[in-house]
């Protein structure tokens, strides 16, 4: 018998599986997500950043748009609710 220790070798392609007791680490979602909306009239795209929780509260009618998105300007709220860009909003409804 030799005094050499046997080394257990694994193929390079094997991926270790996390144990059932180990929680899977995932990054936390950002507070605000980027929402790209296309204008229904001219297809111009506009981008707004909002919390998914706030958008969901407005879409599910849990809150009205003024309560759900208090940090948005009135023009931004109008753009979201009508799905029209600022140029088309001015064209159809004035300033």
Structural write-up:
The chain is of the alpha+beta class and 95 residues long. The protein has a domain at 44-93. The protein has four helices and two strands; from the N terminus they run E-E-H-H-H-H. It has a two-stranded antiparallel ribbon with strand order 1-2. Strand 1 and strand 2 (45-50) form a beta hairpin. It is elongated and about 85 Å long. The chain starts with 32 loop residues before the first strand and ends with a helix. The model has no long low-confidence stretch (mean pLDDT 79).
For the largest beta-sheet, the strand count, sense and barrel status come to: 2 strands, antiparallel
| β-strand amount | 5-15%
- Number of separate helices: 4
**Helix-strand pattern:** EEHHHH
Radius of gyration over all CA atoms, rounded: 26 Å
Shape assignment: elongated
Helix/strand class:
alpha+beta
Provide the spatial order of strands within the biggest beta sheet: 1-2
Q: What are the low-pLDDT stretches, counting only 5+ consecutive residues below 50?
A: none
What share of the residues lie within helices? 25-40%
What does the average pLDDT come to?
79
